[in-house]
Amino acid sequence: MQLGMVGLGKMGGNMAARLRDKGHDVVGFDFNPELRDVASLEELVGRLDAPRVVWLMVPAGEATSAAIEKLSDLLDAGDLIIEGGNSHYVDDRKRADILKQSGVSYVDAGVSGGVWGRENGYGIMVGGAAEDVDRARPIFDALVPDTGGGFVHAGGVGAGHFVKMVHNGIEYGMMQAFAEGYELMAASDIVDDVPGTFDSWREGTVVRSWLLDLLVRALKGDPELEELRGYAQDSGEGRWTVQAAVDHAVPAPVISSALFARFASRQEDSPAMKVIAALRNQFGGHAVAKTTDDPARTPRS
Amino acid sequence: MQLGMVGLGKMGGNMAARLRDKGHDVVGFDFNPELRDVASLEELVGRLDAPRVVWLMVPAGEATSAAIEKLSDLLDAGDLIIEGGNSHYVDDRKRADILKQSGVSYVDAGVSGGVWGRENGYGIMVGGAAEDVDRARPIFDALVPDTGGGFVHAGGVGAGHFVKMVHNGIEYGMMQAFAEGYELMAASDIVDDVPGTFDSWREGTVVRSWLLDLLVRALKGDPELEELRGYAQDSGEGRWTVQAAVDHAVPAPVISSALFARFASRQEDSPAMKVIAALRNQFGGHAVAKTTDDPARTPRS
Amino acid sequence: MQLGMVGLGKMGGNMAARLRDKGHDVVGFDFNPELRDVASLEELVGRLDAPRVVWLMVPAGEATSAAIEKLSDLLDAGDLIIEGGNSHYVDDRKRADILKQSGVSYVDAGVSGGVWGRENGYGIMVGGAAEDVDRARPIFDALVPDTGGGFVHAGGVGAGHFVKMVHNGIEYGMMQAFAEGYELMAASDIVDDVPGTFDSWREGTVVRSWLLDLLVRALKGDPELEELRGYAQDSGEGRWTVQAAVDHAVPAPVISSALFARFASRQEDSPAMKVIAALRNQFGGHAVAKTTDDPARTPRS
Amino acid sequence: MQLGMVGLGKMGGNMAARLRDKGHDVVGFDFNPELRDVASLEELVGRLDAPRVVWLMVPAGEATSAAIEKLSDLLDAGDLIIEGGNSHYVDDRKRADILKQSGVSYVDAGVSGGVWGRENGYGIMVGGAAEDVDRARPIFDALVPDTGGGFVHAGGVGAGHFVKMVHNGIEYGMMQAFAEGYELMAASDIVDDVPGTFDSWREGTVVRSWLLDLLVRALKGDPELEELRGYAQDSGEGRWTVQAAVDHAVPAPVISSALFARFASRQEDSPAMKVIAALRNQFGGHAVAKTTDDPARTPRS
User: Fold this and answer.
1) What top-level branch of life does the organism fall under (chains A, B, C, D) (predicted)?
2) pLDDT per position as a tens digit, D150-204
3) Is the preceding omega at residue A59 within 30 degrees of 0, hence cis?
4) Contact C65, C85 (CB under 8 A)
5) Is A171 one of the catalytic residues?
6) pTM of the predicted structure, to 2 decimals
7) Distances in Å between the alpha carbon of D269 and those of A141, A266, D263?
8) C276:B232 CB<8 A
9) ipTM, 2 dp
10) Which residue among A171, A180, A203, A224 is the active-site one?
11) Which of B164, B183, B220, B227 is catalytic?
């Protein structure tokens, strides 16, 4: 079927290519003239037959909002926007409500698969009305792996990005679990072969997983991880997961711990731990304590 | 090669069977007369040619210690004990030191694989001296999957059980990550198809794993987990992992959070949360507060 | 000085009374005819001399927003609104921006002190422009304890509610620390006198605090907390603190753990722990497992 | 009454001085000739009238164990040892069992109060048999503050050190709660006066406490804590509290989080976070990934 694709970077470009390989007619727009088929959103909309389907694959936040605002002026009632970036599910709902006023439909799609997706297919999690999802189904079918797995219509608008967000939150927890296990083995004086241990776990154990595969690969190249600093970025989804858990009164100690560990990893020095150090200094009854008449007693600990 | 197997329950019995299938000569002892080849440890030792190899597969703790103590009297210098149960690595080290005085060697083996191991092979993680591990290598080779993976000689005595313990700690964290993600999706009013979402993640995502496979299977039979109570046991290994982390000054927020969630799941009522409730009651300046002359002020919150 | 007070419930009524005791001229409005001096916001505004100062002490959220919207129509440039409820600091900032367009100033005030405040004074934390805070300073001076402590101008608009929010977050962590210590002593078979232990800590120790005083009082009436259920509500501020920490990339493991413990305390059954139970069931290789052809291996643990 | 005091350092020396001020007859031994009254434990025991009471105030661990072993040879049935150092409660129980064979009694005493204790009194938490505690009661009465508070007989042998341990665990949680609150306020762009905010909380709030007093004092000298590194030691008691919680199946998320934050503060680089960084690198499908034929798909995130 025919599809407009806005954003032809690493993700959008590969997805467009996979769709074309599968016989779909993709009209692409990007700010980069070398990547695009059409020179403007106006031209893109003009090239598509109504009712149109336009897939957005641009950076989350401002860029996505701006593209949607512009498209809302250009598209007609009956057209469909699929937002495939990393939007927050609450933003999806707001946008869908606004677009509904002009009869434009909205589907949100969480996309997993990275640079390997073009060849192997993408995981696709979508939210939206059944009729809108059905209309775009040939596109989804072409994007997922050839096995036909990897697709879910998770619920109404926002559900796609919601479950992608939760996926990433789970990922944070799993990664941190492996990380803690690694550190404990490395800190002990008892385990001589940490990389070999992880490698052995790839068969017959409970923890076998794609993340374990990746860790074994990483340790093959750098058995003691000497080339890396313990510094980890976090994406919006991890934060959103914790905030959604708080909003829904769901205990999320593991996912939040994993997120906080990343926060801490990026600090040159920890303000919180300065407070601990300051308080411990105060216990000691050092000089500074003499200058105050209160409190009366300074316990040892 | 020839092997004595002490403990022919679900695990030991299946392992003995797999070893025999692979051509090894196993002499088995169990307290249950229906399962055993010999009627006593004395007879078992008598039936084995020196230098002997005896594999212990009995419940951790007292039973294992008692068996080792008895064997230490019966075995000769040059013989080898392989402790395949869930011993604590510190106990392994103590036992090995004692046995060394009479020339008996000790190897600890963490075994993973459960009831499927007989057919598919076990994950085996061992600790001990290289010469002792090498001597028993044909046994290990027969127990692991036919691919030859799933084995590691992790270090000296205790290292096998140490890495098995860490494996289980990681497992706790991974399970809790999935559990939190599940609860968040179930608590939201936005996700209509939670089982389908997990199922879709089995392809092309970061969280794909054996645990995800198991969760999808569980949700197929009981999509809202209505047949289960949120009550989870913990094994010694989870606790030991947290305690080892504390001993080694390794931050383990995820693994400990997962363990604590299990503790809490088994409480009819939480004493800690009674304290929170009691303190909140006190804030209110209710009747009880009137009976005291202190403290002067009761803040709102 | 003259002050309009909107909301004469337990908090607002006591504050108005304390202000009058200190010689201030308070005109009060409430929906309850028995409590109020004037019958409407219109009448309240009419009774005050310009430039007016109006203190809001109504339930957070809709009620507060509605009152501010109405007042924004009635007040003149140069007037000042003090929002003393539990608003979110981001809402404060939005409101202040809107009011600024009509020249009305806005100060947010976090208030601590509960039912004891009338007699003993309130803790007051304010945010706003220096000139606005200065203008209302006589009011703040009358509300705080007679010692003159308990007041801070923490920063611009929103800062008052921000630091009140953080105060409550810290409170959550402190309460949970005592709660965990209580549970550990109660769970051990070694401590015979838990209430006496807490009581002894009121002198000469590091943990002496108003919360400890409250706990000792609670244990005097109910030494084993048998009259209470381990069920704890949470207020918005605890949630907001965690969300603000996430927004600012600040690790907050203790405050979030304390919040999550409250969430968990209110669950009849934990969906997350059902997942743990379900996964543990799957390990066992029970009947349900036989009906699937995948996965190949089911490890013991 | 008469008391032998072993260990006359900062703590033991001050305690001996306070006891003498209150009219008790203290015979002191220390390895430092300048501090002691007697030159050996033998001489100390010889100078005391039976039944003797000997208070140990030496470094925890080896030094304490060695002193007890030596004293067990020198003392007679009916004598009493009070161990006032920071022993683990399990060690107390072992020692008491051994001493009981020769009729020597054992009481463990957790002592709080630091350098201010000589003047203001110490918090004393003891464990032991009632008759032994009663015998030493005049000593305890002289050590605690003149108000008579600050003492508890918490239970049998070990209970004194157990509750002192829990006290310190609670202290960890409280300190971390303040630390997180500080960091959040410092990280925001909204709070202009962090020290003033803490200061204002000393009146009329829920968080008022001796730790808050200390923090306010520390911030007076160094308002942005610029002179300190975020590096915090931990004492044995914090670790023991977490381990005891795990042993007793008590959820302790706050105390353990506080402990882990200290562990992390002392790491130049975090091995765990290197694993996170390594895994994130692997996602990207970078060069290293090309050299493997597995896994098939590399998702974006």
Assistant:
1) Bacteria
2) 999 999 999 999 999 999 999 999 999 999 999 999 999 999 999 999 999 999 8
3) no
4) no
5) yes
6) 0.94
7) 45, 10, 12
8) yes
9) 0.93
10) A171
11) B164
